[in-house]
Specification:
The chain contains ten helices and no strands. The protein starts with a helix and ends with a helix. The chain is mostly helical and 186 residues long.
Length: 186
């Protein structure tokens, strides 16, 4: 089989109903490399099939392929992907998000009733180092101030009965405070 034939077979494999085949096809296509193949994979982040997006996102994560950061973020914030973006958020953990603090908080603030997305974003916020401006921090703080009183209700969290997997207002407040504290230092 020629490389071109293999590439065509892999492109078909990405759209199979077999998760392992989808993931292997995505990984192998990335392995073969070349701008055309990478662009093809990046384009799949626009797919309506969440499994295709997930397979590609995990390929980028496994390879720490930071050129996919922007397209991945665009796919994560698309309204039509709102209920199927947890794996894409998870993929951010291995990408360099240091200049995306505001974007990460925006995703967090719009992830009501999605503990998977909330947990993924908080993991990135907790484990990576960020570069940000004073204006970024002020914007994050202002958005949180508008949202925080409704956070628990938006997430179906009962006051005083927070379950282990729930991310309540206090948890988010601690993250916001942790970053906003830099305003007092400067």
């Amino acid at each position: 089989m020629t490389v071109d034939q293999e590439i065509e077979k892999l492109k078909t494999g990405i759209f199979s109903d077999d998760w392992d085949k989808m993931k292997e096809s995505s990984n192998r296509l990335f392995e073969i490399g070349g701008q055309e193949n990478v662009d093809y994979l990046i384009g799949l982040l626009d797919q309506s099939n969440p499994l295709v997006r997930n397979a590609v996102a995990l390929t980028f994560m496994d390879n720490k392929f930071n050129d996919a950061l922007e397209p991945l973020l665009k796919s994560i914030i698309k309204e039509e992907n709102r209920n199927a973006r947890g794996t894409m958020v998870y993929a951010l953990e291995e990408l360099d998000c240091k200049n995306k603090l505001k974007e990460l908080f925006d995703i967090l603030f719009t992830a009501a009733k999605n503990a998977e997305v909330q947990t993924g974003i908080l993991t990135v916020l907790d484990e990576q180092e960020f570069e940000f401006t004073k204006d970024d921090l002020i914007e994050i703080q202002e958005k949180w101030e508008r949202l925080k009183d409704d956070w628990n209700e938006l997430n179906g969290i009962n006051k005083g009965k927070v379950k282990d997997y729930e991310i309540d207002k206090e948890t988010i407040q601690n993250f916001v405070d942790g970053y906003v504290s830099y305003l007092k230092r400067g």
